[in-house]
Amino acid sequence: MLNADGIPATPIAIYADGVAVGFLMYIYTLDHESFENEVFYGKKSYFIWHIMIDMSYQGKGYGKLAFEKMLMDIETMPNGEAEYVTLFYRTSNVIAKTLYASFGFVDTGIIQDNSMLAIKYLDGKITESLVE
């Protein structure tokens, strides 16, 4: 599937016992020009664009399990080779920060609209080297 800009986008619905409880989406793209001074700029990457779990289903493990499955899919590089995967999370969302860190994401220090950009290498390298 391609998004409106012609970029490969992969939507994933999350179901529990036949009930839709959330939605994830990732895209395959080059970095936005606002990152042109970063060491990871100009390389193909996966970007986790949407992560949503219905409020009544939060805190039950659905988001963590779905996120893990999505990362497993991304690691197969279904839309092409990439060195890393990125995402934004609200700086006030400590639960999200903890979840993403548990999967190896590190903060870059780049904040846009009160959201932190976090990054993870896809080849097992130490991610911290991307943000030094």
Automatic annotation (TrEMBL):
Coiled coil: none annotated. Pfam families: Acetyltransf_1. PROSITE patterns: GNAT. This is GNAT family N-acetyltransferase. It comes from the Bacteria. It comes from Lysinibacillus zambalensis. Residues 1-123 form the N-acetyltransferase domain.
